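In response to reviewer comment 3 from the previous cycle, which asked for concrete evidence that the modeling workflow produces usable outputs, we include below a single protein chain processed end to end. The sequence was submitted unchanged, and the resulting structure tokens are shown without manual editing.
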Amino acid sequence: MKKHWINYALYALLISTLSFVGCTDEGDETGEPENGEIENLVASLSTGNGRSVRLTFDHLVDSLGEPLGDYIIMNSEEGADFVKDGNTNNNAYSSNRTKHGLSYRFFVKSRHDDKWYYSDTIEIATAHPAMPWVSIGASVDGEGSGASIRYIKMEFFTGADPSWEVIEKFEYFRDGEKIGEYNLPQFGYSNSFEHKDESINFNFEQEYVYTIIAHCHSGEQLESLESAISVNVPDVIDRPAPSIEGITSDATEKVIYLHIKDESEAATYANIYAELGDGEWVWEGGDRALSNLEQDEDGNYMFPLSTEGAPGGFKSIKAKAKVTIQGKDSDWSSWSMATVFVGF
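The workflow returned the following structure tokens.
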């Protein structure tokens, strides 16, 4: 009996020894870091959603000063055990495994030459689910001295989705002055909103600062970060008229092509006016995207005019064109004239 008891004890000791070695070899997956040799770990919160956490840290370097990679990011939510969040070969990482309104701890580890290296831990809290995250932009009419600001628009969202489950209403502020509010309807299905500020005559170059306060059903009030905007007077854009470099016809396909040169090299659409003979047949409009038009060997855009139903034979044609550049039309081109054959 004594001999068997010794064998069992030795077997148990062997198993425990192997388990200990295995744990050390893999590194500590759930505990605190053991050293701070990965330096300068910094955590920052995304201003885009108030939830994602971006980590940066100094690279480990080899004996020649070359950066080493293969980092493992460890994450602890609300004081729980650390778990693996992800891997990176860079010295920056963004964690999207986070939720609004919680506290997280992170550390980084890496193994090289059978040794584990660790950063210190860092803690960061994500935003409350009712916190509004705001971006702003302006709508401007005209250019140069004729320009004016139509409105400034706030676009915002919250982590609570749908928002009405947490939030009763939003209040809107410009430069500290309340400019409006919005009561959330129950049973809505959105966490994304917008508000247009059209209440004053805006001035170019003046800075306007906007904030939003979310009033929760619980009585809490969450104020957004400040969003500032100053709008510059838009430059007058040069919109040169195109030119029609030629007119050709394909009687078989029953089509006439206007070969349009975009003098600006920045146009997006083309419109035309053309007529056969003395107003026998007229084409007008089109509004064709240049990206969808074929080009001839000289790089001119080939605007097609269907001759289906048009009077056949040799005909005189005159045409002009204009293009759209950054949302506005150029002047008309000069008239271009040619003689073409229209198939019967």
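Residues 1-28 have pLDDT under 50 and may be disordered. We consider this sufficient to address the reviewer's concern, and the full set will be provided in the supplementary archive.
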